[in-house]
Amino acid sequence: MSLGLLFAPSLPLGAKETLSVAWSHWPPFSQIEADGELGGLDVALTRQILRGADLEPAFRNLPWARALHLMARQQLDVAMGALKTPERARFARFSAPYRRASFVLLSHKPAPGSTDRWQGITHLADLCQQTGLRLGKLRGTRPLPLSDACPSLRQASEYNSDDRLIALLLARRLDGVIIEWQYARHRLAQLGAEGFTSCQVLLHQQPVSLMLARETVSEEELARIDAAIAALPPLDTAFAPPECRFDGSQPREESTQG
């Protein structure tokens, strides 16, 4: 889907109810573009979805933890790219999924003359029994479906940001990182390091939704939002998951990361 095609013409603002929508810097999903305007895939999709439901978004720059806090207090209407959990369902409604996030295990390519740590790993079972791999993941993420039965993934060290994970991978201080693919792809392209990494495992594909404050967004508005999501055209193939050595995403259950 071309981002330029996502922006549907809006009715006069006075004809629509305005909903506050949290965003934070998370390219390519939400970011300030070169022209100074807020853009990105989630921002563009959310604009089209809400305007298709006869609603108007008012974006607020908020860290994710702050957005969750405000939504729990019914002081924020919408959060983008959300995963449905029992805890969140106590204070929020969830739209139908509007895209899927792909989580992968990326490795660095070996330095010239050095041993490839991944060469002898020919099956997922081999990976799970590795004890010498230095793996990292984002702090606070919930276990991936595969990791419960995969000690090497379960024991990955935690770091405070995806940028830190990528920096350690590029410095070869980590052998692999568990990360959201589109963000990693975007960041590696910015750094001119696309050819430095390999995708070892497609860990899972997670549907994400709009999370809506239960007391400020009605069931009727949710129904209109879901209808607008159903009318979206397919996403561009650029947002498809990568080709990896192993596919660990099927047939296991979806994870609850995010």
UniProtKB/TrEMBL annotation:
Keywords: Signal. The keyword Amino-acid biosynthesis does not apply. Residues 18-243 form the Solute-binding protein family 3/N-terminal domain. The keyword Signal applies. Pfam families: SBP_bac_3. Belongs to the bacterial solute-binding protein 3 family. This is Transporter substrate-binding domain-containing protein. It comes from Aeromonas media.
